[in-house]
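Page 37, continued from 36.
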């Protein structure tokens, strides 16, 4: 074999390229360049977007079992809650139907009793809505002013209420406004009825330190009054319609040395935050006029006998 035809290149195993240190330096520089280029020029952003788009179906496929497990648990909880809600709703519906039947039965019984006793129906109370303008500046009184007066049909002595109970009474009427004295005022008084005992009494205002309390006066020391008793209007004064919430008993002080008990009350309706009220027409406006006394009946018996 001629010597010129012999391959003198080393085999692949023995071939040596650049040194390891050179490769480390080159690839380190390349990494730093790619990081700087990606940070400055966003070169790898399209590659990341393409890979994320390609891997999205795979991720969704892998999340299907997890979604199924979570959805099944939530469905079971929702089904249990729906069954419990339906059961509670059916129980409430049954109770409401029972109350409705009882109310209807009481209404029929009331109608029969009125027909039996030949009682006339209760007076219908006319009302007018009004808005609270401001509270009186006097620190020793509890009064508010309304935006309605005599022009709007507000009458002197009209009761003023809101959705929780009696607020007070109209004490002054102007053409376009009116003044309301609240129940907590020191000059206020209202006849009340104890719902529990059906005992009548009178409640007066202006007894608490903050000026928002009331007091039940002229009650015997052994009177049947307990904490929490609800007091409503009795309707005997011809001003307030009967059955309106007035106050609640908060304290009963039975003093041995005195013949009367000191009973503190908290008004049911609070004027704080009240914006809209209802002004009722006094009952005496709707009641029939009292018959005039017979002049003959006022004369002494001797004069009537002599005239005969």
């Amino acid at each position: 074999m001629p010597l010129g035809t012999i391959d003198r290149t080393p085999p692949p195993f023995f071939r040596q390229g650049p040194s390891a240190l050179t490769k480390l330096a080159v690839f380190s520089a390349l990494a730093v360049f790619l990081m700087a280029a990606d940070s400055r020029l966003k070169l790898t952003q399209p590659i990341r977007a393409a890979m994320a788009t390609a891997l999205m179906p795979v991720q969704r496929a892998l999340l299907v079992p997890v979604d199924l497990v979570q959805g099944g648990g939530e469905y079971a909880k929702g089904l249990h809650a729906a069954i419990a809600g339906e059961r509670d709703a059916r129980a409430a519906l049954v109770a409401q139907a029972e109350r409705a039947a009882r109310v209807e039965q009481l209404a029929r019984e009331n109608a029969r009793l009125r027909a039996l006793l030949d009682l006339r129906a209760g007076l219908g109370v006319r009302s007018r809505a009004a808005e609270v303008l401001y509270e009186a500046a006097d620190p020793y009184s509890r009064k508010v002013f309304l935006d309605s007066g005599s022009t709007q049909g507000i009458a002197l002595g009209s009761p003023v209420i809101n959705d929780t109970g009696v607020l007070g009474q109209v004490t002054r009427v102007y053409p376009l406004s009116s003044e309301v004295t609240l129940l907590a005022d020191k000059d206020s008084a209202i006849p009340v009825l104890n719902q529990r005992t059906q005992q009548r009494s009178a409640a007066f205002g202006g007894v608490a330190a903050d000026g928002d309390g009331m007091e039940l006066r002229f009650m015997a020391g052994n009177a049947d009054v307990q904490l929490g008793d609800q007091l409503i209007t009795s309707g005997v004064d011809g001003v307030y319609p009967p059955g309106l919430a007035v106050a609640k008993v908060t304290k009963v002080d039975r003093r041995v040395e005195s013949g009367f008990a000191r009973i503190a009350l908290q008004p049911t309706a609070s004027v704080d935050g009240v914006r809209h009220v209802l002004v009722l027409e006094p009952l005496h406006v709707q009641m029939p006029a009292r018959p005039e006394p017979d002049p003959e009946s006022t004369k002494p018996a001797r004069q009537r006998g002599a005239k005969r």
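The mean pLDDT is 80. Flag for discussion at group meeting. Residues 22-116 form one domain.
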